[in-house]
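Figure caption, in words: inputs first, then the predicted bound structure.
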Amino acid sequence: MKALVKQHAEPGLWLMDVPEPDTGPGDVLIKVLRTGICGTDLHIRSWDGWARQAVSTPRVLGHEFVGEVAAVGADVQDIAVGDIVSGEGHLVCGKCRNCLAGRRHLCRSTIGLGVGRDGAFAEYVALPAANVWVHRTKVDLDIAAIFDPFGNAVHTALSFPLVGEDVLITGAGPIGIMAAAVARHAGARNVVITDVSEPRLDLARKAGATLALNVSEHDIAEAQRRLELREGFDIGLEMSGRPEAMRDMVDNMTHGGRIAMLGLPAQEFAIDWSKIVTSMITVKGIYGREMFETWYAMTVLLEGGLDLSPVITGSYDYQDFDAAFDEAANARSGKIILNWGA
Ligand SMILES: [Zn+2]
Ligand SMILES: [Zn+2]
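Bound structure (zinc ion present):
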């Protein structure tokens, strides 16, 4: 089968013929229909410091996908050939304290699809049945392809109650934009999102942000004045991993404010911890999705009319992966889809 492979420990990706994945009695074999390109995949293509320590070659990339079940193992129940499915890309150990307690997203031995094992940028991908999410109601295939990052957005946005609250999102990448849509849909009063890319701020406006602010020209305090906030933001969603964004966020939170942090900083950085203490701020780290509470929430949010279509800005045949990756890597784009045959 065709697959996008990190074949050599150097920058680049290779479209190659590889064997179909092996499946055991508890596994599901999935014919891939569409995939989403993630920042993780861009890191692996460019072979930066993180990728060098996280990935061993050769490795089939990709963790964001939708596909059709092609075969199920003898022990698999409730999943049938022909089902339309996406996959939870974090494979957990099932044995650690958190797994045993049902908190699988907190597993300390998580293996990432397309990072620590062969992924979904291929004609077929295999997953344990426990990682397969069956779309039991009709869903747009492009949206189904990005359930993994949509789940990051939902998990982050719904970390704290936000009905009637004023929400600040720093970083208008695809996940920040989806989080803005989720926060509005879920009942936030104001959703302010910041970035330095005007095209991405435009996407965030289309997705429902109350105010999309270019922080190279305006500061967040100005957004507070424009919206007539008097005491700061109640909820912060940090989506950029950038030190200055986190500092700005802390400076603009209300006392007792709560911050969910998904953006992954490239290195350690200083913040003024005295402000965290005296403003009595809670900071919560987010990694991945809750299995499968987040997945349930995603499905019912879409059934309830949540519109994510503004976040998808490009679609390519898998043979044109280089152009697709280049577009995904520029700061103007939303989510880019690769088509594998449907
Ligand atoms: Zn991803
Ligand atoms: Zn575990």
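Residues 174-185 form the longest helix (12 residues).
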